[in-house]
Amino acid sequence: MKLADKRVLVTGGSGFLGKYVCKKLEDEFCDVKTVGFSQDLRVRENAMRAVHNVDIVIHLAARVGGIGYNNKFPGGLFYDNAMMGLNIIHEAEMEGVEKLVCVGTICAYPKYTEVPFKEEDLWKGYPEETNAPYGLAKKMLLVQLQAYRKQYGFNGIYLLPVNLYGPGDNFNPKQSHVIPALIKKMVDAKREDIPEVTVWGTGEVSREFLYVEDCAEAIVLATKKYDKLKPVNIGAGFEMKIKHLAELIKDATKYQGDLVWDTSKPDGQPRRCLDVSRAYEEFGFKAKMKFEEGLKRTVEYYEKGS
Length: 306
Fold this sequence. Notes:
With 306 residues, this protein is an alpha/beta fold. The protein has a domain at 7-166 and 209-237 and 271-288: Rossmann fold (3-Layer(aba) Sandwich), CATH 3.40.50. It contains 10 helices and 12 strands. The protein is globular and about 60 Å long.
């Protein structure tokens, strides 16, 4: 699919990932329309208006947070994410949209999944408990897309990105994920001469991280080149223990204090690392940003803006 002159709706276009996706679409000479936080896509009529007269929909809008946020608001996370997605997909099909790209979440995978996670593993168990309501709400959108493809011939694809990071991330401690949360803690502690920083969990669990601009590139490539029903992992193809991540952030922020591990707090999923071969084979995506460089840019972004 050639994207030049296509009318593209990006839900969540004003968000962290959305801004990068919109920029790449503009570079493809698309006519980009966004739906921001003020337009409640849980309301069907709003979703109907949003998809009117567009060729492509890229659905990024989501209510998200870290482990603490997920523990506090499981019902809202399930309802909000399910309703936004259900409405957008249904109304896009009704409108006759050419293609819909739905961005899901690695939280949809079972709690205990053989590493690296393969797309075929999605239905082999229940997600990690703190992430389950959010992960299942997003996974239901894959079911909807596959059902609509079968019944209506609707061209909807589903992507599964890992944890994102980069400049523009959400550093709000009530909602942030692990990288921005630790950057904020250590930069602030360095400025205020606080001798120690507390980190949740044991540090022994692993995560995979993808630079936000790489993820945006993958989404645009999939929009142009992928039209199949099977979901596709989007990641960098490595895993890192949280304990090692914390030490890297400590070095990047030049924080000289101690790290204290609060083992009374949940770790979340034991391991996370994706098999990213399908993305490369189907639309040629391979992450470019080296983690240390991406982390450095993220730290510099927070230091300049805080």
